[in-house]
Amino acid sequence: MSEFDTAPRSTRAAVLIPFAIVTLIWGSTWLVIRDQISVVPATWSVSYRFLVGGLAMGAFALARRESFRLGTTGLLFAAGIGLFQFVLNFNFVYHAEGYITSGLVAVIFAMLLIPNAGFARLFLGQRMGRQLLFGSAIAMAGAALLFVHEARVDPAGPARALTGIALTIVAILSASTANVMQATKTAKRFPMHATLSVAMLIGSALDAIIAYSLNGPPVFEMRTGYVLGILYLGLFASALAFPLYYRVLRAIGPAKAAYSSVIVPVIAMSLSTVFEGYRWSLLAGAGAAVTAVGLVIALKARRPNR
Predict the structure, then answer these.
(1) Are 108 and 143 in contact (CB under 8 A)?
(2) What is the pLDDT of residues 140-149, one digit of tens each?
């Protein structure tokens, strides 16, 4: 039995409620992201998302009277979060969805648990249990089956599926770096919302610089679905979800917080099946099932990171 299982109900609720909110929101974002890259270059869409999210977060921080005087250390920390979470992570995710379905990206991203646990062990001294390692190995085998399926059915051949999966893996490593940064003592020295606001705005600015250098002047689609998508991703999936997720992460550790990624693919693959016409084969179903089994085994590990 873990510390969380024996915690008071009020403490458990303080973790489970935001955990559930974040999981439901992020489970739906993969499909919205797919729509964001139909006309507008991916990096411009990422920039708009975090401009909206950063401004909304800043307004909330001001309402809470949080200080934006972060000092040099705080600004460098916010810039690091901005780079790894709001530039590298999301640019690779958005580009990955240009190669493979949103549901498959979500399934691969479920393996965030693995680098989160590894980096937490390496940088925070949080130990990994054998069951966590065993479950992670099974999950990776399931992901390999999914790759084989995608390589078989894609008319462009395995290169396209491999590119999408490789981009997703780089995104996972970037997100995991930011997650572990949020679990450090340095992160706890600064007000959450003000720091995240600065991080998102720095990330948005870097995204804009990259987008301009790669794609030229800003491109914006004045389509209702696109505008609503930017607002949903900026306000709900960013300004609301990230503070909730990071509070959970600080409370239970990076490895356990990544358990949300086990549930997210169920939502994402269901939506992908309905709206993207994703067709399940025996191999794809087996890959998704094996991935889920592995992650559940890891999830049930007794005190996976002490």
Answers:
(1) yes
(2) 777 677 667 6
